[in-house]
Every structure is written in structure tokens, then in C-alpha cells.
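User: Quick sanity check before I run a bigger batch. Here is a single chain. Can you write out its predicted 3D structure?
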Amino acid sequence: MRKNILLIGMMGCGKTTLGRILAKKLSYDFIDMDDYIEEIANDSISNLFKVSEGNFRNWETEACRRLSKINKSVISAGGGVIKKNINMKLFNDNSIIIFIDRPIENILEDIDVSKRPLLSKGKEVLYKLKEERYDLYNNYCHYRVVNDGSLEEAIDSIMKIINEKF
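Assistant: Done. Predicted structure follows.
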């Protein structure tokens, strides 16, 4: 299999942690899209947001354009990547798009709010974001994996999809 694996879902759902483990298991490269955006923009995510959310989203789309052209990578996307249809269209053909669905309560146990620009107004924002984005995650993904147990269980679920379908 040469396709990428694109992990989408709410911030704090486990995309980066699962992505690193998955990349190792598959002997794929791992790319955290937020880190990649910082690299190509030569600026931090929080500074890009300070200009405007639109500024950040434009850099995110540029990252999607570039990353959709590579192969054999596990890519952990930012939570809002689904806000622009073009982002998901770019990945649709060369990637297996997996929605990591994790209950908000579990996310709130783990997340460091200070490192999340969109959560600067409080944790309630996470519930609002889920309400706004949940249907989009479901509409854009090829597969959905519930991450409400151990990391091993989530990885096993993803590997089962990969092994059965590809």
C-alpha cells in the first residue's frame, strides 16, 4: 500500500499520538500538519492565528496542497482541516481518511488548554466545536475509529481497517 493515512478529528482526540505509533508500525513517515504549517510559514500556529483564523486556514490549505502529493505517510491533521472542502478533496484520492472519534470528556482529561489557541475562551468551546464539526468529520472520512479505550485498542482498530481493506 502506498496511500497516505490522514487522521482527522477534534483537537486532543489522539491523532498525533496514534499517528506516530501507526507510522512506526507501517514503516511510513509521520507528519504532524501543525508542525508542517509552522515550517512552511516560518511562524508559530499561535502567531498565524493572531493575524486571523483565515490567515491560519490559508496556510493550512497550502500545507494540504503540498502534503497531498506525497506517499507513504501518516499525517495528523489539525482539528479544523475539514472546514474547507478543498482541503479534504486534495486528500480524497491518495489517502485513507480516518476520523478519530473521541468523547469530549476524555479529551478534557488530557488536553493542555494553554497550548490551544481556539480554546483560549474556555473548555466549553470544545463542545461547540464538536457540534459544528462532527458531521463534517463523518462526511469526509472513509472510516471512523472510536478512541475511548487504550491506545492499543485504537491502533488495533486502525490496523484492522488497513489490513482488511488494503
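The domain at 4-165 is CATH 3.40.50.300 (Rossmann fold).

User: Great, the batch can go ahead then.
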